[in-house]
Every structure is written in C-alpha cells, then in structure tokens.
Design goal:
The protein is an all-alpha fold. It has helices at residues 3-8, 11-31, 38-59, 62-83, 105-125, 135-154, 158-175, 179-200, 203-213, 224-235, 247-250, 262-295, 299-323, 341-360; strands at 96-98, 101-103. The chain has one domain (3-360).
Length: 368
C-alpha cells in the first residue's frame, strides 16, 4: 500500500472498532468466570484472527473484491442451503460445527451480498442514472437479495434477514432510486406486516412480538429474559456494580449474557458511563462509515460503504433496543462486543473494506 493511501485511511474507524472489542472482552471476562473463561479465551483468539483477515481485505483492492464477489455469492448460497440440514442449535439451523468453531454462513453472506449488489447496481447505472428505476432492473436486485434472505428466514434467523433488507434499502437510496418506490414500499410494509403476523410468522416469532409488547404477560417464561435485562440495566446506575459483582450477570439470571444481552452486562457492571460511551463510539463509527461513502472515489465504493453502514446501524439499534425492551428480541449480535467468531470476523472484514475504500479516495474531494 502506497504512502499516500496510508495517509488517506480513516484510522479513527479502526480505533473505534478496537475500543469496542476491548470493552467486549472485559465484559466477557467478567461474564464467563463460572466457565473458566472459555468464551473469553476463544474471543481473544477470534479477535487476533479477525484483525489478520481485516488487514488482508484492506490490502486487496476493493474493485477486485467486487469482481470476484459473484463467485463467493454462489458458494455461500450453497452453504446456506446446506446449513438447513444441520442439527438445530437453540431452534435455529444456522451453524456448521467445525471443531470448537461454529461457522455461521449467514454472517459472511452479508458481505458478499453487499459486494454483489454494488457490482450489479454499478453495471445498471453505467447505462444511465435512471436505469435503476426501471422495474426490470429492480427485479434483478430483488432476486439477488431475495434468495439469501429466504434461505436465512428458513433457518429461521429473522434478525439477520432484516439486516440484509436495511443494507439494500440504503444502497438503493444511495444509487438514487425514485422516492415513489420508497413510498410504495413503506405502504406495502404497513399493509403486509399484520398479514404476515396473522398467517405467515411461526408461533415462536409471534410470541417474541407479543412478549415485546407485554413482557409481564409471561414473566417466568418468554418474558423472563427481557425483564432480567431491564433489571440489570437499571441496577448499574452511573458507575456500575463492578466487574464480577453484577447480580443478574453473576447469579445466572441474565441469559444469554455473552451474546444477545452483553450490553446488559456492560450496563450492570460498568454503569451508564461506559454504556453511554459505547453508544457514542457506535455513533462515531456509523458517522465515519457515512463519511467514507460520501468521499469514496467512485460509485462502487460509495455503494459498498452505504451497505456496510446499514448493517452496522441495524445491528446496533436492534441489539441495544431489544435489551432495553424497545424492540423485539431477534438474536442479533452487538458488533465487535458480542461473543462469536463468525460475527466478529465479519465485522472486521467490513472495517477492512471500509479502510480499503477510504485509502483510494482523493484527499481534495470532500463533497460530491
């Protein structure tokens, strides 16, 4: 990588990701003492691996990544089909068990869907900026999106499926899709959501929505986790109860505390100061992602950065929102903080691609 490219890189983005990862490790260290720090030790390994893989994606020109993305799109579609025949874990067939590593293809698929969509949209736009508004072209985009989304919903993993939709929506807005399509889509969502709830969603998904609306209706059953989560967040106060001292965390009332409810652990044991700092860092990270999209040297880079922004934005809002009882529980991990090799590697690959895009821009161009 040339000296000029190194100067162009948004290093603040990497610093934010590292800080969040370290806060996550501290929370995991406290939350896993009863298991002899098993998940903490594994997460340390995944962090090192993730940074190495991030560097690889940072050094390979993103234009080459985009060109080869359809190959990996096809490979991961096959993996998504195959994972449906694996043994379910917690009711979902989302993982391949490889030794001590559980490989989740849906996480990695987010990257290759974004890259493949960026390639498709760029080719469509090369024939004219208004081409993206043609129904035939939009159908191509939705077909590319729809296949992995349907497979992921089949697992079932509705949270990850929604992340794909959010990323694609932001990419289409960036590409200049006509506002009428956004309005029509919004109306369709309003109309179809009640229908999906009534006739399509399985019972366990309906129950999650019902519990979100009224967790006290089943305080010892489905509403238990969210009630304990809110108790943990409230108990932390300004500075927290201290590491290894959180009642909900250490006494086993908070579950799963290393993945879905890791923010509750941070809030209870480290308090509002650290939890608020985490949110501020996420705001900084998302803002930097948008800035990289705005200053990208070409439309392809702009689209990729926009899609990654959508992934991060949805995961942060959904995870923090669900542990506070503001959104339904979907099992979406908190970027860089929740335990999980697949999610952590995916997060750092996204950072690597963003650093890649930022390195290729011209410093004299700040506004498009």
């Amino acid at each position: 990588m040339r000296k000029r490219e190194l100067k162009n890189i948004e290093w603040g983005l990497l610093i934010a990701a590292i800080i969040l990862s370290l806060i996550g490790l501290i929370a995991l260290f406290s939350a896993t003492q009863e298991s002899e720090y098993d998940e903490f030790n594994k997460q340390c390994i995944w962090l090192v691996i993730s940074i190495v893989i991030m560097i690889v994606f940072m050094l390979i020109d993103y234009e080459l990544l985009v060109k080869i993305s359809p190959i990996f799109y096809g490979i991961f579609v096959i993996l998504l089909i195959g994972v449906l025949f694996t043994t379910p874990v917690n009711g979902a067939s989302s993982w391949y068990g490889i030794g001590f590593f559980s490989f989740q293809p849906g996480e990695f698929m987010k990257i290759f869907v974004i890259l493949s969509l960026a390639l498709a949209i760029t080719k469509i736009q090369s024939k004219g900026k208004k081409e993206i508004n043609k129904i035939s072209k939009l159908l191509i985009i939705f077909a590319m999106l729809g296949l992995p989304v349907l497979l992921i919903m089949k697992q079932p993993d509705y949270g990850t499926a929604v992340a794909f939709l959010v990323a694609t929506t932001i990419m289409l807005i960036t590409a200049g899709i006509d506002k009428k399509y956004i309005i029509i889509a919004s109306i369709l969502v309003i109309i179809t959501v009640p229908i999906l709830y009534k006739f399509v969603l399985p019972d366990h998904a309906k129950k999650r929505i019902d519990i979100f609306l009224n967790p006290e209706s089943d305080p010892r059953g489905s509403g238990y986790n969210i009630i304990q989560s809110k108790l943990a967040i409230g108990a932390g106060g300004l500075t927290g109860m201290g590491l290894f001292k959180g009642n909900q965390t250490q006494l086993g009332f908070l579950y799963p505390k290393t993945t879905d409810f890791i923010f509750s652990v941070i809030s209870e044991e480290m308090g509002f100061v650290v939890a608020g700092t985490v949110i501020i860092i996420y705001v900084f990270l998302v803002t930097k992602c948008l800035y990289i999209a705005k200053t990208a040297k070409d439309e392809t880079g702009e689209l990729i950065a926009s899609g990654i922004t959508g992934i991060f934005l949805f995961h942060v809002l959904e995870n923090i929102g669900m542990v506070m009882g503001l959104l339904p529980i979907t099992g979406v991990p908190l970027p860089f903080i929740s335990y999980g090799g697949s999610s952590l590697i995916t997060d750092f690959i996204c950072i690597g691609i963003l650093l890649n895009i930022s390195s290729k821009r011209q410093k004299t161009i700040f506004v498009k």
